[in-house]
Model the fold of this input.
Amino acid sequence: MTDHPGLRTEDLRRLLVESDADVTGDLRIDLISGGRSNLTFDVRDDVHHWVARRPPTAGLTPSAHDMGREWDVTTALAGTAVPVAEAVAFDRSGDIIGAPCTVVQFVDGPIFRSAADLDSLTDDEVTASADGLIRTLADLHAVDYRDVGLGEFGRPDGFAARQVKLWARQWGLVKTRDLPDVDRLVGLLADRIPAHARNTIVHGDYRIDNTILSPDDPGRVAAVVDWELSALGDPITDVAMMCIYREPVFSAVLGFEAAWTSDRYPDADGLAQRYAEATGADLGDWNFYLGLANLKLGVIAEGITHRALKGGSSGASGAERAAEATASFIARGLAAVS
Done:
């Protein structure tokens, strides 16, 4: 039996048993590397294979690391066209684990985190994986959230305006130094909130390494993971985030050359065009969405360093330097909306 900071085998066994999960033999827990936010663990007994997630042990900020949000949306999406891991157990209050914690069935398939991971794919397969990613995002945005029981999941109206305010507040909580350009970008975004938007389920952090691809078909997504930022709101915010993650500077946030920044994938404009063609959606004030995505990613980068300095890093190397990318994202946001 192996314990890890933030997840003890005795506590996890109790959660699984109380959730009517069959536990056979000793539990074995391994921290999955690569995370920059919630802690993710590979969990096995003598028969079963699960994945457990909980917030970092330090450096938390309000509205981030929301395990309840992740649980609610993935259980609602079960049985839809959006592939998600099967839900197993949830400690919503944190009374058992010490923090809110979800457990889902392990989904077999590759996760392409680094550019080197793409070496196993041909160029046609890389293109197919991008198309599969966009089809799955389109499927998500096509789900009627009321039909799947998410009518009370959030307040979709005014989503973009609340996002600007939310990430401005988050900046105040995680900043490791003053960057006046952040306030400038927030002000410009607040002045050009789109007047009209569709309301759908949004993932909030959509890119290739937050999906698991089918082991025998890289053009098919086997599961979408990491739903902690999901909400009801404007789907074009998802599209813009997916595109901004293509910026090479994102590799500095992760601490390695990211798969999604590889030049083997279509560029940001190409991805946006593919989404528009797949859905027939109007991308609206695209520069606003790019500006908002850059603000969000800049604050996320700063938050990674904030947690690392507080001792809450998930174990990935280079977290203390992630904030070095923040100014670049803010500058790109200003360029988009100015």
Q: What stands out?
A: Residues 112 and 292 are 26 Å apart (CA to CA). The domain at 115-337 is CATH 3.90.1200.10 (Aminoglycoside 3'-phosphotransferase; Chain: A, domain 2). Strands lie at 28-31, 39-44, 49-54, 87-91, 101-105, 200-202, 211-214, 217-224, 231-233.
